[in-house]
Every structure is written in structure tokens, then in C-alpha cells.
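Support reply, case 0932

Customer input (verbatim):
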Amino acid sequence: MTNANALPPSKRPALLWGLVCLVMAAALLILLPQSRLNSSVLAMLPKQAMGDIPPALNDGFMQRLDRQLVWLVSPGKEANPRVAQEWLTLLQKSAALGDIKGPMDAASQQAWGAFFWQHRNGLIDPDTRARLQNGGEAQAKWILSQLYSAFSGVSGKELQNDPLMLMRGSQLAMAKNGQRLRLMDGWLVTQDPQGNYWYLLHGELAGSSFDMQQTHQLITTLNTLEKALKTRYPQAQLLSRGTVFYSDYASQQAKQDISTLGVATLLGVILLIVAVFRSLRPLLLCVISIGIGALAGTAATLLIFGELHLMTLVMSMSVIGISADYTLYYLTERMVHGNDVSPWQSLAKVRNALLLALLTTVAAQ
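Our regenerated output:
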């Protein structure tokens, strides 16, 4: 005896597919609060082999690097730290920036020296390392040359605490490699070939570098502060560097591309479906098909990687038209032969063509 309340076999695949979609939607709702939208350009770089360094340490280093900001302020051809001090004062007013460093006070210089003194054995420069090889006779001769040089200024305390002069060697190597930077009035200063003085400042983002709205607001604020600096000092020049500038440009460009591609693709699909089928029902079916695909892709990406990069959205927008083609193939088949065959028979007729199109699209991507 047949149960009248039993679900017909033809409806069971639809019910199963509906349950799968509900599970994916529930998974997406759970994953979204724990995920982030990544707009950093550093995340697009290939992973570098870091030897035995733990991945967590490497990720922390990359995140800190993503927050770094560096400025070079030039007052012109005459040294004038007031211009750099003005820029430092303007930066300190921004709540989005933290740990802004300009001139080095006595405590900072002492801390800098204490760090190199404490780790002098691990900071041996290549020249000292080469002199210490083969018994260290070359290092002994170099120490004697420093002792008898009238310009070295070797003190008895230095020789007693550091008889191999490891710290002196590392400092001389640093001065040799970075000789264009020198300390003037507590500032790190350099000069370009045109004779302009440049003062170095450093800062970090106070918040996360993945917050696109906060990052764009910071860039807008920095542009406003730069205009204020040049209003007071018209001759001033400013150079800014940091991954946040590139990330903001990439995110804004991606937003523009998403809007352009999204509108163009949507209008194209609507016009094509309305012109061919003269009905909004195929359009609704096409939207549902693309929406389920986007739901599955987003849920899978967040489940595996825990984040979604902004460039992934841009690339996904470019394949919406291709995704709509699969629905159109099936709907065209139903429009022509819908009265003669069942929906499953129509699907069987276009299955091979759809699979071939899918394989070529995946291979092209």
C-alpha cells in the first residue's frame, strides 16, 4: 500500500540539494564573524622558505611589517629640523598611528647601544668573521691598528670589556653600509645628490592593517596632513613608504573593478536573458544558480583559509558571465525541447558539453 504522505522519488534530489544549500548557508553564517577580508599586498606574495622558523613567528613578522610606515621629510638645501618636528607633531595627532619615532633622545641612543653590546657575539659582521678565521691573526693585527690609530679613540674600558672589539667592528660595518645616514641633532639625516637634507621618521599602525575602511581613512588623513605641512613650509618635500599605501591603492582599485565588472556583467546577463527568453523566470533561475555557486565557493574558502582576499572577489566577478553560460545552455535546451523530454533528459543531453566547458574554464584559470 502506497503512503500518500511519502515524498515522491522525483522530489528527493531537490530536497537533498535544498538541505545541502541550507548547510552551506549555516556554515557561512558561522564562519563570517571569525573571518576577515584581506587587502594586504604582502598576502599576494609567494610564501618564502624560512627554514626552521615557526610559521606563527613568520606570520607575526609579516603582520608587523604590514603595519610599518616610514617618512623622509626635506626642508630643502639647509638643515632645519623644525620641518621634521612639525610633521612629527601632525602625525602624533592621528589616532590611527602609534609608536611614532622621530629624533633619538639620550635614553634611546643608550638603549640602542646596550642592545648591540648585549648581542655583539651574534651580530658579528662579515669582515670580522673573515678576520677571525684561521686562528684570528688578522683580527689581532686589526685590533693593533685600531689601538695605534689617532682617530679610533679606543678606551681602556672598551678594550677590557670587549677585547676582540666585536662591537666596534659591527658598528664600523654598519656605518660603512649605511654611510648616507648620520645623526644630526638627534635625527637620522641624509643628503641627496642635489644637496637636499632628508629627516627620517618611523611609525606603525595602531590598528589592524586588514581594516580597509580604517586604512583608507588613514591615507586620506595623511594626505590632509601633508597639505597642512606644505602650507606652513612651502619648500618642504615629503616621501612616504609602507605597504599600507599599496594595500589601500589595491583595495580602492579592486572596489572600482568590482563595481564596473559587476554592473557590466549584470546588465549583460539581464539583457541577454530577457531578449532571448522574453521572461524573468530564466533570469531568476540564473541568479539562483550563480548565488549557490558563490555561497559554496565563499564557504569553502573561509573554511580552508580562514580569510578571503579582496583580489579573489575581483577575479570572481570576472567569471560571473561564464557561470551564467551554464544555466543558459540548459535553459536553451529546455526552451527548444522542453515539451518532448523531461528535465533530467535535457540535463543528460547537455552534460558532456557543460563538463567540457567547465574543464576548459578551470584549465584557463
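We compared this against your earlier run and they match. Two observations from our side: Residues 158 and 165 are 8 Å apart (CA to CA). The chain has two domains: 55-247, 254-364. Please reopen the case if you see a mismatch on your end.
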